[in-house]
């Protein structure tokens, strides 16, 4: 039996990406297909998404979707998986980023933009699409993050008939919750009963993520450790009560990586392709990376960082440890963008160490591949990390992760402690707490491991042999869907 799933999100590679959410939503249809799941992805019609559609067909129209005309375009994602695009020009056809204007301020009508997305999803699951005279049906709706989180709420409260389509919500990041004031509630076209403690009401306003968590049949997040962590106030960020209350319906399913995109043996963006059997070829990538970042060439340890420059990612601590990193013989190539203060502090620190620290501000997918292939270790000092993808890319490329022991970082990297070294299974370095001392000590430990080249090569081989493809996680989602439908 094929399970038909409508996956709803605000981004998906290759059409629109601001972070890891897009990687996961873009990969899910392919990850689920081998397990008998047919995934249709619903995305907002940002200009980049609409213009990427090849001969789009309008398959449904609303005169008023939460007050604005909209239509649904049909297309395909990479791999031929079905795609639906919510073309509502008043909401999505604008210059700027998906959530912010050109100056980086949140769009004031984000609540309406993404409520419309959730409402459209519920209408589609409720049978709005008619194909050759037949209503198109879905067995389940899978909503991602706050932007899609009203979909489960609309399904729960809508008068769509006796059989309600079950729903799953996935938390990719609890820090973003989509809150607006109470004046928004009457405009959502939800029944009055939805304004409740176990409904959409949250701190006197509308909590979109909260509404999804309270309404979906199951909640997933992207690692087992984060699923535990969000039961506490520190990680739950106000929603820990909902998580604890729904404890039996909360599941941690690790993200996978797309092994076709992240494979050093087939990666055309690299100076030299390699596998765990030809690690010596990495040297050419290291030379190329040094040249690209204006770093002194050398065989000493070359650290990399690829990230949003934010507090979540611990990037405020990085500038403080740069003197130490250089003092122990390290160099650093960093690619990132975000917080202006962090950027300024990084450049200040870099200016003290010409030839040792290279910084590139911006977003560059292809460069991120070359960095994983040329760097020796990737530094990820996140304060919280639901799963994290860059450590998985690092493992696949033999660029050993140096990570804070939290969330998915704790679940995917095996610390090179004496036991793991003796057992021959270590794949990186973990440290506790994000502080100058913890990070500096972890870097010192990494450099000591690096100086024993036989040990280091063993770690790289262990890392590259780890299987973090979607195989296991695709099955876990499929099993969850099947259980909910049954
Ligand atoms: N400057 C830059 N140039 C090029 N590429 C860049 C870049 N900055 C970041 N990236 C890329 O963006 C993605 C970031 O994904 P992460 O999972 O690490 O974090 P993010 O916080 O965005 O995702 C949230 O959702 C994902 C998905 O569930 C969770 O893994 C994660 O923990 C959670 O915080 C990676 O593909 C990375 O390579």
Automatic annotation (TrEMBL):
<dbReference type="InterPro" id="IPR013534">
    <property type="entry name" value="Starch_synth_cat_dom"/>
</dbReference>
<keyword id="KW-0328">Glycosyltransferase</keyword>
<comment type="function">
    <text>Synthesizes alpha-1,4-glucan chains using ADP-glucose.</text>
</comment>
<dbReference type="InterPro" id="IPR001296">
    <property type="entry name" value="Glyco_trans_1"/>
</dbReference>
<dbReference type="GO" id="GO:0005829">
    <property type="term" value="C:cytosol"/>
</dbReference>
<keyword id="KW-0320">Glycogen biosynthesis</keyword>
<dbReference type="GO" id="GO:0005978">
    <property type="term" value="P:glycogen biosynthetic process"/>
</dbReference>
<feature type="domain" description="Starch synthase catalytic">
    <location>
        <begin position="4"/>
        <end position="243"/>
    </location>
</feature>
<comment type="similarity">
    <text>Belongs to the glycosyltransferase 1 family. Bacterial/plant glycogen synthase subfamily.</text>
</comment>
<feature type="domain" description="Glycosyl transferase family 1">
    <location>
        <begin position="298"/>
        <end position="449"/>
    </location>
</feature>
<feature type="binding site">
    <location>
        <position position="17"/>
    </location>
    <ligand>
        <name>ADP-alpha-D-glucose</name>
    </ligand>
</feature>
<keyword id="KW-0808">Transferase</keyword>
<protein>
    <recommendedName>
        <fullName>Glycogen synthase</fullName>
        <ecNumber>2.4.1.21</ecNumber>
    </recommendedName>
</protein>
<dbReference type="InterPro" id="IPR011835">
    <property type="entry name" value="GS/SS"/>
</dbReference>
<dbReference type="GO" id="GO:0009011">
    <property type="term" value="F:alpha-1,4-glucan glucosyltransferase (ADP-glucose donor) activity"/>
</dbReference>
<comment type="pathway">
    <text>Glycan biosynthesis; glycogen biosynthesis.</text>
</comment>
<dbReference type="GO" id="GO:0004373">
    <property type="term" value="F:alpha-1,4-glucan glucosyltransferase (UDP-glucose donor) activity"/>
</dbReference>
<dbReference type="Pfam" id="PF00534">
    <property type="entry name" value="Glycos_transf_1"/>
</dbReference>
<dbReference type="Pfam" id="PF08323">
    <property type="entry name" value="Glyco_transf_5"/>
</dbReference>
């Amino acid at each position: 039996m094929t399970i038909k799933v409508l996956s709803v999100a605000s981004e998906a590679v290759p059409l629109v990406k601001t972070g890891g959410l897009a990687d996961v939503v873009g990969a899910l249809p392919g990850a689920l297909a081998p397990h008998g799941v047919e995934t249709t992805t619903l995305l907002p019609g940002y200009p980049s998404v609409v213009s990427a559609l090849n001969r789009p067909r309008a398959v449904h129209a609303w005169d008023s979707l939460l007050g604005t005309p909209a239509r649904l375009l049909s297309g395909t994602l990479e791999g031929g998986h079905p795609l639906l695009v919510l073309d509502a020009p008043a909401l999505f056809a604008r210059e700027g980023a998906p959530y912010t204007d050109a100056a980086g301020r949140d769009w004031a009508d984000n609540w309406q933009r993404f409520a419309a997305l959730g409402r459209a999803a519920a209408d589609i699951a409720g049978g709005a699409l008619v194909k050759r005279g037949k209503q198109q049906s879905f067995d389940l709706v899978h909503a991602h993050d706050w932007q899609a989180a009203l979909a489960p709420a609309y399904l729960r409260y809508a008068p769509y008939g006796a059989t309600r389509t079950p729903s799953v919500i996935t938390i990719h990041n609890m820090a973003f919750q989509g809150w607006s004031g109470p004046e928004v509630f009457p405009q959502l076209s939800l029944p009055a009963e939805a304004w409740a403690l176990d409904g959409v009401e949250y701190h006197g306003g509308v909590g979109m993520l909260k509404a999804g968590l309270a309404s979906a049949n199951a909640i997933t997040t992207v690692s087992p450790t984060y699923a535990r962590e969000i039961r506490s106030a520190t990680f739950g960020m106000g929603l820990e009560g909902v998580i604890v209350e729904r404890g039996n319906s909360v599941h941690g399913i690790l993200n996978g990586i797309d092994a076709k995109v992240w494979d050093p043996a087939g990666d055309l963006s690299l100076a030299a392709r390699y596998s765990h059997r030809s690690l010596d070829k990495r040297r050419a990538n290291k030379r190329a990376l040094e040249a690209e970042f204006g770093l002194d060439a050398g065989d000493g340890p070359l650290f990399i960082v690829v990230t949003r420059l934010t507090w979540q990612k611990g990037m405020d601590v990085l500038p403080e440890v740069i003197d130490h990193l250089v003092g122990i013989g390290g160099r650093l190539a960093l690619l990132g963008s975000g917080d202006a203060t962090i950027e300024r502090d990084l450049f200040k620190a870099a200016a003290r160490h010409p030839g040792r620290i290279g910084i590139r501000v911006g977003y560059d997918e292809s460069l991120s591949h070359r960095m994983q292939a040329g760097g020796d270790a990737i530094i990820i000092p996140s304060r919280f990390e639901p799963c994290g993808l860059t450590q998985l890319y690092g493992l696949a490329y033999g660029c050993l992760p140096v990570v804070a022991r939290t969330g998915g970082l704790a679940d995917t990297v095996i610390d090179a402690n004496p036991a793991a070294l003796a057992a021959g299974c270590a794949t990186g370095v973990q440290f506790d707490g994000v502080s100058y001392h913890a990070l500096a000590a972890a870097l010192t430990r990494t450099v000591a491991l690096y100086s024993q080249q036989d040990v280091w090569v063993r770690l790289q081989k262990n890392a590259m042999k780890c299987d973090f493809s979607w195989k296991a996680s695709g099955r876990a989602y499929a099993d969850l869907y099947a259980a909910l439908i049954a």
